[in-house]
Amino acid sequence: MTMKYRVSRRAALGLIGGSAASALIPVPGARVNAQTLDKVSYQTNWRAQAEHGGFYLALANGIYKKYGIDADIRMGGPQQNPSQLLLGGRVDMIMSNSFEAIRYAQENLPFLCIASIFQKDPQVLISHPGQGNDTLAALKGKPILVGAGGRTSFWPFLKAKFGFTDEQIRPYTFNMAPFLADKAISQQGFLSSEPFAIRKAGVNPIVHLLADAGFGNYNTTINISKKMVAEKKDVVQRFVTATLEGWAEYMKGGQAIEAANALILKDNPDMDGEKLAYARQVMNENGIVLSGDALTLGIGAMTDARWADFYKMMTEAGVFPAGIDIKKAYSLEFINKGVGKA
Hints:
Layout: H1 2-13, E1 38-43, H2 53-60, H3 63-66, E2 69-74, H4 82-87, E3 93-94, H5 98-106, E4 111-118, E5 123-127, E6 144-146, H6 148-151, H7 154-162, E7 169-171, H8 177-181, E8 186-190, H9 194-200, E9 206-209, E10 219-225, H10 226-231, H11 233-252, H12 258-267, H13 273-285, H14 294-297, H15 304-316
Parallel strand pairs: 1-2, 1-3, 6-7, 6-8
Antiparallel strand pairs: 3-10, 4-10, 5-8, 5-9
Helix pairs in contact: 2-11, 2-12
């Protein structure tokens, strides 16, 4: 089903594959002959949504094509493992996070992170109002629904910073019924997803954004093989620049995002316009894409200092061993050029 949508998207946009021309550097705004486009595949980590909007906009509005790229944006889902696809050479780039990039360095794997679209990880904890749970610190010792992935990522951070304990954990199965039924329970979520559904169910929740408490994980990254970086540097740069321009347009909103949202809805019929609008709104309100280093360095920004701080924090929390050469996890070569900065 996903392949059918990808083919129809490219056909609709005139992105017909052809011979590669990695030496091509298009002039912004110029039309590029379809036979000169370089093919690049990018695997997202979930079904199409506003959190992927900039990639879809760069595709729908011809930004990738302007930069000589035939972009294949592949929708993820519960049955797909982007990391395995990257390691197996079945996709050029994947959407991921800091944790995975550091594991590349830890295990001496030939992959790295080259950009982070989200300056703030959208991970949240959600509580009922009027229960004295207005801060993260107030949740110490109280029951929280946490999934398996959260126990090895953000939970160690909460234990180290706020004194949370494993005894607080209750299983989270991505079903909000237990939370809605018990006002004493809090649960994990994604800023732009679960709070929306909870509000639709009649509860106006307290939403704790972990990034605002110091959880410095880079999220919605572009992870890639070192081989591609070395052999197709120009192609990689053009893909990254086009992507960052797409995100700059998507976050501004207006008519420019309509074609992107149409592609998202086509790939993911379970999505709807109201949720797309909500997600983009809360991403803007909370500085998910444009905050911190991105305000001066541009969308996708990363820094040595933040990588070092995150590694130190998560090492002290017991997630990573000491002694990893953190600089093997990432490259700043393709970003921090001011694209889309406020």
